[in-house]
Specification:
Number of helices: 14
Strand order of the largest sheet: 12-13-14-11-10-16-17
Structural class: alpha/beta
Bound molecules: adenosine-5'-diphosphate
Shape: globular
């Protein structure tokens, strides 16, 4: 069995099966066997089952949220927020199942018709991370199931309890064995089973760029389709002409979400020189008032890092920056609570050579860089191997347009710190991966286009 620990105090909160390779392969077999029946169900039938699942989970949100607090460390209000976000995908794709349209194309031959149909890609697999134990799963499986694909999921071994509870509720809703399977055990071995089995036609992965590349090269051998949502190094740019209040509210909410352990977390905060000092003062004042604590209470609190590796990374990045001349405006050290708690930290007087400038921090650290011109900041923002999301605050319409055009990212968010919802295409470019999740673009990832020529129609 795999022990699941509470990052707030190290206590054991549950366990998940350490499956053998044979058990994993048997689950893959079930996923493949279920495909012909599931893909031929009426879209409405698939949508109805998803809808039923949505309703069962929605009516029991609190018990899901409490599990998430215990295994992930995020606070209750954030857990509920994640559940609403994640449920949005089940609801959206329950509806979208019925709207997978094809095409007809004017015929190029006499007595013939040209049809374009969209078919389910096949049995699929997914590997998900620990930072959104609920939403990462619903976002993938709801899309796959709506499209007519079956799916086997390996959730993170850090947070499998939410995942297995989702599976339990899916079964209660009538989503059968095989259509939705779940395995836990040795991630590398399970990954190898998924990538090497030619019956699995597509893999969706969210996690680190390193593991994403590993899986992508293994999938290359089988020419298996992938959706990859990998690391980020999001710039958050505030121009002199921005609304200071909005920008401050945006950065605090976006940065402290899940204690900064989010791939779209603002990682490089660039503030124009005319507004820099006021921005730093306002953010410091606001962040200083936010409590750090375990999450089982209604108030928003900053929780612990999920594990020792994540914690150590944050410590090292802050230490490296301060050793090289950064100034600490707030925090900068382990929290008095000890364990995996780190103080929300604001750093100024940074430069682009520090490790913190080109590493995904995954912690409650605000590195605030100074810039002079739009041209300069766009160049610095794009100077990253990643390209997931970029945020910018400005009230100049022309500048907003230029930023949306010039920034290399899958998502550009102007005058807001909030990105995701079921109806928009989420995903990145460069080393942040490829493919999109959410909206009608998301379901296309699970569909194959088939061109059918029907000739000889008058005979
Ligand atoms: P993080 O650093 O955020 O945990 P990872 O990429 O290591 O990111 O983990 C994301 C998911 O990938 C988790 O479910 C993890 O178990 C899984 N994983 C880690 N290593 C491998 C691997 N070699 N093959 C397949 N999956 C893996």
């Amino acid at each position: 069995m795999i022990k699941v620990l509470n990052p707030a105090d190290g206590s054991v909160v549950g366990e998940a099966p350490q499956m053998t390779l044979d058990e994993v392969k048997a689950a893959v077999d079930r996923t493949c066997k279920a495909f012909p029946v599931w893909s031929r169900k009426l879209a409405k039938e698939r949508g109805d089952l998803l809808r039923r699942w949505f309703e069962l989970v929605r009516d029991d949100k609190r018990s899901f949220a409490e599990i998430m607090v215990k295994e992930n460390g995020k606070c209750l209000s954030e857990a509920i927020g994640e559940i609403d976000y994640g449920l949005g995908f089940i609801e959206w794709y329950a509806e979208e199942a019925k709207r997978v349209y094809g095409d007809t194309i004017p015929t190029h031959a006499g007595n013939a018709a040209v049809l374009v149909v969209k078919e389910a890609a096949g049995p699929t697999a997914a590997i998900t991370p620990w930072n959104f134990p609920f939403m990462m799963i619903t976002r993938k499986i709801a899309t796959a199931l709506a499209a007519g694909c079956t799916m086997i999921i390996k959730p993170s071994e850090e947070t499998p309890l939410t995942a297995y509870k989702l599976l339990e509720y899916a079964r209660k809703a009538g989503i059968p064995e095989g259509v939705f399977e779940m395995v836990t055990g040795n991630p590398k071995e399970i990954g190898e089973v998924f990538t090497s089995d030619s019956r699995i036609r597509k893999i969706s992965f969210t996690g680190s760029t390193a593991v994403g590349k590993l899986l992508a090269s293994a999938c290359g051998k089988e020419l298996k389709k992938m959706t990859l949502e990998l690391g980020g190094n999001a710039p958050f740019i505030v121009f002199d002409d921005a609304s200071l209040d909005d920008a401050v509210a945006g950065i605090v909410a976006a940065k402290l979400r899940n204690s900064g352990q989010v791939c779209i977390s603002p990682n490089r905060i660039y503030v124009q020189e005319g507004i820099y000092d006021r921005f730093v003062a306002a953010v410091t004042e606001k962040v200083a008032k936010i409590r750090v604590d375990q999450g089982l209470q209604e108030e928003f609190v900053v929780g612990p890092m999920v594990n020792r590796t994540g914690y150590t990374k944050v410590v090292e990045l802050v230490d490296d920056a301060t050793r090289n001349g950064a100034r600490v405006a707030l925090g900068g050290k382990a929290h008095a609570k000890g364990g995996l708690f780190y103080e929300p930290t604001i750093l100024t007087e940074l430069n682009d050579n520090m490790r913190v400038a080109h590493t995904e921090i995954f912690g409650p650290v605000f590195p605030i860089y100074r810039f002079k011109t739009e041209e300069e900041v766009v160049k610095r923002a794009n100077n990253s191997e990643y390209g997931l999301v970029a945020y910018a605050y400005t009230r100049d319409l022309g500048r907003a347009f230029r930023l949306s055009r010039d920034i290399e990212a899958g998502m550009v968010i102007l005058n807001s710190g909030s990105v995701g919802t079921a109806s928009v295409p989420f995903g990145g470019v460069k080393h942040s991966g490829y493919g999109r999740e959410g909206s009608y673009y998301g379901i296309e990832e699970y569909l194959e286009v088939k061109y059918v020529l029907m000739a000889g129609l008058d005979r």
